[in-house]
Specification:
Blueprint lengths: L4 E7 L23 H13 L1 E18 L2 E17 L8 E8 H7 L3 H16 L1
Antiparallel strand pairs: 1-4, 2-3
């Protein structure tokens, strides 16, 4: 988060129906990483931004299909504070990254769970 804004990305990977996705940076922890360490790394890789951990916002649980199998997934989201970096310095898995007002992200992100996490971040920003 920076000045009431969060970083959003358009990943190169499309939704199941082929549509573009507007999302928050996220990914899987690598060996030995905590979910919080993975969040910091993924924001750096996918959005070019160095940040520091403020607090955990919550988990989003959902199901998806891969290879005909139903798979459960849990994604942990964290409130991060901007330290440095430029959103144009993202990796190849991302078409583009940009800053977006929290109010707009809470309305415009593709997935409901991510919109809820931004709403939580917005609530914390208003009480800070």
């Amino acid at each position: 988060m920076r000045d009431g804004q969060c970083v959003v990305i358009v990943p190169t990977r499309r939704a199941a129906d082929g549509a573009r996705v507007l999302a928050l940076p996220k990914g899987h922890p690598e060996a030995g990483e905590s979910p919080a360490q993975a969040a910091l790394r993924e924001v750096r890789e996918e959005a070019g931004v160095e940040s520091r951990l403020v607090e955990k916002l919550g988990d989003v649980r959902y199901w998806y299909m891969r290879g005909g199998k139903r798979i459960a997934k849990v994604v942990s989201f964290f409130l991060l504070e901007y330290v440095s970096g430029e959103v144009g310095d993202h990796d190849v898995k991302v078409e583009h990254a940009r800053w977006m007002a929290l109010e707009d992200a809470a309305r415009d992100l593709t997935y409901e769970g991510e919109r809820e996490m931004v709403t939580r971040a917005l609530s914390r920003a208003r009480t800070a």
